[in-house]
Design brief:
Number of strands: 7
Radius of gyration: 22 Å
Helix content: 10-25%
Distance between the termini: 81 Å
Low-confidence stretches: none
Strand content: 25-35%
Largest sheet: 5 strands, mixed
Shape: elongated
Strand order of the largest sheet: 3-5-1-2-4
Order of helices and strands: EEHEEEEEH
Number of helices: 2
Length: 114
């Protein structure tokens, strides 16, 4: 059984998974295909790791990576989902600002009673 590790920024630990794949000792792993923007030296493993294979099961957590380092689909801030490349919190802040501006523009000037 192969062990896969992916970093979990929220916990500050690596999540371990076991999969059915078996690689012979000292065998070369398949070369991952990386987009040109993350194919350079110094790219964080969160962005440049191999993808998680199918059929894996959770096998614990630990301080150090074990086995093959894979990407879990998390960003550097943890488990924040994205919406077209933007973090959900950015979309929520933008919608909040638009709704506040719309509310005050439709409400009109504040009237004072004398």
């Amino acid at each position: 059984m192969m062990i896969y590790s992916c970093f979990n920024p929220k916990a500050g630990l690596y999540d371990y998974y076991e999969g059915p794949d078996v690689y012979p000792i000292n065998a070369d792993l398949p070369v991952p295909s990386l987009p040109p923007e993350i194919a350079g030296i110094g790219v964080p493993s969160i962005e440049a790791a191999r993808s998680m294979p199918s059929g894996v099961t959770p096998a614990g957590q630990g301080w150090h990576a074990r086995g093959m380092l894979v990407s879990c689909g998390r960003g550097p801030l943890g488990e924040l989902p994205t919406f077209g490349g933007l973090a959900i919190w950015r979309v929520a802040v933008a919608l909040g600002l638009v709704s506040i501006v719309t509310y005050y523009s439709l409400r009109g000037p504040k009237r004072r009673s004398s």
